[in-house]
Amino acid sequence: MPAEAMTTPLTNLLEGLSVEVHPDAPLAPLTWFGVGGCCDALVRPLDLPALQETLRRCRAAGVSVRVLGSGANLLVDDAGVDGVVLRLDRGAFTAWTFDADGASGRVRAGGGADMSKLMHEAARLGWAGLEAMSGIPASVGGAIWMNAGGKFGAIGDVVDSITLVNGEGVASTVARDAIRFAYRHTELPRGIVAEACMQLRRDDASAVRDRVRDHMRYKKASQPMAEHSAGCMFRNPTLPSGERVSAGMLIDRAGWKGRREGSAHVSPTHANFICVDPGGRAADVRRLVEAIMAGVREAHGVTLQTEVAFWKRGDRAGAI
Ligand SMILES: Cc1cc2nc3c(=O)[nH]c(=O)nc-3n(C[C@H](O)[C@H](O)[C@H](O)COP(=O)(O)OP(=O)(O)OC[C@H]3O[C@@H](n4cnc5c(N)ncnc54)[C@H](O)[C@@H]3O)c2cc1C
After folding, report:
1. What are the chain's domains?
2. Are 141 and 67 within 8 A, CB to CB?
3. What is the pLDDT of residue 249?
4. Ligand 1 centre from 201 Cα, in Å?
5. Residue 27's closest CA among 70, 80, 67, 72?
6. What is the pLDDT of residue 8?
7. CB contact at 8 A, 215 and 154
8. Is 138 close to ligand 1, i.e. is its CB under 6 Å away?
9. How far is the CA of 230 from the centre of ligand 1 (A)?
């Protein structure tokens, strides 16, 4: 359905709710790639009941819903995406609280809270456990959904429980034991991470800050942090021998480092990063992804899988 035809009914659909509705909202400024088109409506719920009722009404009306975090692991098609894109960047969704006694190291954070700010606050207070998130742009919900991390650990290491809201708007608490954290993936029923509880541990504040700084230094030296990318484009594949190998190394050895397709190029710093020129096109990224996959298949007999989510109209990928 064309965007013009969708926007009025979507605004009506959500009437009376504590939500901000932005029809035909451009998504490029909300993603790290900085490319892609509009969604039919960007919806910002102000509280949990509004989020739940939005999901209920959209489900009943057959409107597809996606959730956007910091947009650091996402490519939006140039023609945009249909339906509602939810963003938890208002009210309690962006906040966190440390346990009132200040001694337990438990922190409760909204799904839209900025992971980097939370990590720095924890470091300042002398709570360790989030340093692995240094240099990883993410919302709390997006980090948990992807089990973000790397060489120094992953967010799954500290998650204690989450509040998950499903496509029907039903919220439930999922305890750590019921969640399987895997390599850049968390096994959860499809839904929205509205809140998370994390268990940190006491450490010397300056030691925590030093680790944050060291990890950041490592990232800056090995990755193009200042460019428009979505981090690693491909998952590190597991070979038939069971060994997990670096996708960047395979891409580099296949001769793709530095190569370009229109506005997109393979970073000369890290071959698993695809960077886009300002004002570039998602179509160029897609073409480059396909060319790299073909090149790596030909050179190494390995089929790469993308790690970055791709949203486009008429496609249910990413919908709740
Ligand atoms: C410069 C750079 C460096 C990076 N380095 C790393 C790295 O070292 N390690 C690493 O793991 N990643 C890295 N990334 C990728 C990215 O930071 C992570 O994948 C991060 O977890 C994405 O979080 P987000 O909030 O931006 O999610 P988005 O990109 O907004 O969304 C990603 C996926 O999560 C879903 N999602 C978002 N919020 C929620 C929610 N509240 N509930 C349920 N689902 C949700 C979305 O629907 C989508 O499917 C890097 C990215 C960049 C740009």
Report:
1. 3-91 (3.30.43.10), 92-221 (3.30.465.10), 236-304 (3.90.78.10)
2. yes
3. 97
4. 24
5. 80
6. 57
7. no
8. yes
9. 8
DSSP state of 236: P
Tell me the average confidence (pLDDT) per consecutive run of 10 residues in the chain, 320 residues long.
53 94 97 98 98 97 97 98 97 92 88 98 95 97 97 96 98 96 94 97 96 95 94 95 94 97 97 97 98 97 96 92
Q: How far, in Å, is the centroid of ligand 1 from the Cα of 100? A: 29
pLDDT for residue 9:
77
User: How far is residue 134 from each of residues 33, 209, 239, 287, measured CA to CA in Å?
Assistant: 19, 10, 29, 31
Q: Would you state the torsion angle of the CA atoms of residues 44, 46, 50, 56, taken in this order, to the nearest 10 degrees?
A: 20
Longest dimension (CA), the chain: 58
Amino acid 2: pLDDT: 43
The sign one gets for the Cα dihedral 255, 257, 259, 261 is: positive
* 8 A C-beta contact, residue 27 and residue 76: yes
Residue 118, classified by CB atoms within 10 Å of its CB into exposed (0-12), middle (13-18) or buried (19+), is buried
pLDDT at 1: 42
285 lines ligand 1 (CB under 6 A): no
DSSP codes, 241-304: TS-B--HHHHHHHTT-TT-EETTEEE-SS-TTBEEE-TT--HHHHHHHHHHHHHHHHHHHS---
Q: Of the residues 76, 87, 93, 136, which should be mutated to test ligand 1's pocket, given the most ligand atoms within 8 Å of the CB?
A: 136
Cα 238 vs. chain centroid, distance in angstroms?
Answer: 23
Atom 41 (ligand 1) nearest CA? 141
